[in-house]
Amino acid sequence: MSLPPPARVGDPLESVDTPALVIDLEVLDRNIAAMQDIADARGVALRPHAKSHKSADIARRQMACGAVGICCQKISEAELMATGGVDDILVTNQIVGARKIGRLSRLARHVRLGVCVDDTDNLAEIAAAARHSGAELDIYVEVEVGMGRCGVAPEKAGALCRAAAAEEGVRFAGLQAYNGRAQHIRDHRERGAAIARAGEAVRVVLADLEQAGLGGVRVTGAGTGSFEFEAGSGLWHELQAGSYIFMDADYARNLGPEGTPETTFGHSLFVLAGVLSTAPSGRVVVDAGLKALAVDSGLPLVAGPEGAAYLGASDEHGVVDPGGAALRPGDHVRLIPGHCDPTVNLHDWIVGARDGFVTDIWPVTARGAVF
Amino acid sequence: MSLPPPARVGDPLESVDTPALVIDLEVLDRNIAAMQDIADARGVALRPHAKSHKSADIARRQMACGAVGICCQKISEAELMATGGVDDILVTNQIVGARKIGRLSRLARHVRLGVCVDDTDNLAEIAAAARHSGAELDIYVEVEVGMGRCGVAPEKAGALCRAAAAEEGVRFAGLQAYNGRAQHIRDHRERGAAIARAGEAVRVVLADLEQAGLGGVRVTGAGTGSFEFEAGSGLWHELQAGSYIFMDADYARNLGPEGTPETTFGHSLFVLAGVLSTAPSGRVVVDAGLKALAVDSGLPLVAGPEGAAYLGASDEHGVVDPGGAALRPGDHVRLIPGHCDPTVNLHDWIVGARDGFVTDIWPVTARGAVF
Known about the structure:
CATH architecture of the largest domain in chain A: Alpha-Beta Barrel
CATH class of the largest domain in chain A: Alpha Beta
Order of helices and strands of chain A: EHEHEHEHEHEHEHEHEEEEEEEHEE
Radius of gyration of chain A: 22 Å
Helix content of chain A: 25-40%
Largest sheet of chain A: 9 strands, mixed
Shape of chain A: globular
Oligomer: homodimer
CATH superfamily of the largest domain in chain A: Alanine racemase
């Protein structure tokens, strides 16, 4: 059952029902343009990751601004994005099992679709399904470049690439080289060093491919924490950053080359919480807890009222120190989530606002698209 | 957009698509019966909290077994439970603002409905809306009994109770006295002491009410960690435990009177994850991360294969040490969530299984019912 949106277009922000996911569209558009400008200036393509926003409306906005397509993490996410009008999708993940592979190959009939592989049997299954469906799929071999998650070791990647190139029904398109662990290294120089090591791993595979007559393939990867290094490396052709459009509290803790926080991208995503109760202690209780906010990367920061602090979350409640503000039941507290991706996934609707008024209501198209 | 269920009735568990929320119905039914037996033996009513399961099917199952009704945390949750056939609901939370209070008073036309208050203005607004709608609402005054969240201080509760009793359109029904903080105190004696202190707070209010000619009201509260103490106190009339039906990894760390883990309730809730990738390190990567599992109360435990351990979660991935099991892509890993309530809220469907086969598919009726 779908729940109704917490606001209507034209409402002042003060009347939005809480808790609600609210986007400052001015900052969102500025972030989208800033990343596209950087990619254009470096001569690399931008394929933003849609796992951050899960919104077909935002994906189409990114593509209208120059993005070549989007990334998804799950086949269900890709299906919903395709239904929402996105026609070029790379699934930056392994798709395993006959049921999901069948869906993947059927979706490839309708949109340009790529998928990552790191296993010979999985590659063979995908190729067989693609031949059966008659739709060509782009195959990216995922290389382990320092993240310690999926991917084949660089020295073994060449063999899998050759297997992909030899399979009928699929097109060997390139390498997936993403180091997620590097994204949250605070120090600029250390973050750059982690991507330099990832680049070395990519070089090993590219040399192998060159020898095998498979040169000139696409290398795709990078995230909001590290994209400047991949973009400047001369190795990556495509950036997959996602969180830059929202900038959660965690990413904002990354430091730039001067040792000060990066300010290229602004916070555009907020959870609007409402005060439920004023406690005898002077603290207030708001209506946004673990079911409205992800806390895996730390508690949310308070964007307003100034001086207030979010102290703790239980399932449906948050305890806030008002910091001098005279908060009463029904008043709003504006929170910057610690981690935007799993926070967005908790909500059905995005409330888009400009100058204090609601201008857009978007569904979170792929909310809960977990398989 | 609703996603299709990850299985069909009759499927063997091995073929369930992952990640999926799976319930062992035998254990679920045993847990439901065990808690009802305890409540019956102690002569107290059971009103299980539906914030744990968010499922109208499970709520009706609990009521068929003797529960007097259910608890909800949000007005949207209560609406969806009512639509799902539940006719007696206590909202154990403050409902704030004209829009939500309007919904509350309208819902009271269709089901027996109670709500908690801890503020005079909020009480007056609710009573006005109830008079307007013509439906009587039960009012429970929430008393702060040691949790440090919502509720009025015991010495101030009497005045609010008298105000509730004086309002037309609502019925002053009793006291909400819940100490959520006590639920997760590991030591049995300390947990009992925290509830004994909560009982002292309740006594203060009851004495005040007796004097005001408002004796004989209902006292409701208690959770899975502490219900035995409230049930045995002679003060509480109604238990609100919710998590006992599932038993997450966190609640299973509570100790009984002998200093050993409590075993009255078994783990009935699992997240079935699928292996995506076998890493060069020997670890495997599964398809259940932060968007399929809540990690606020610790990482999930592995129920099978034996000896495996879940080491870390990112948005869509989990890293698992297989502990000797030969796991290949597509194999299943059965996880016991660290915290069941926010985990259930991430899923659209519950797969009910018995003897290794899917027997029921239930929607998570109030999934995402956050406002």
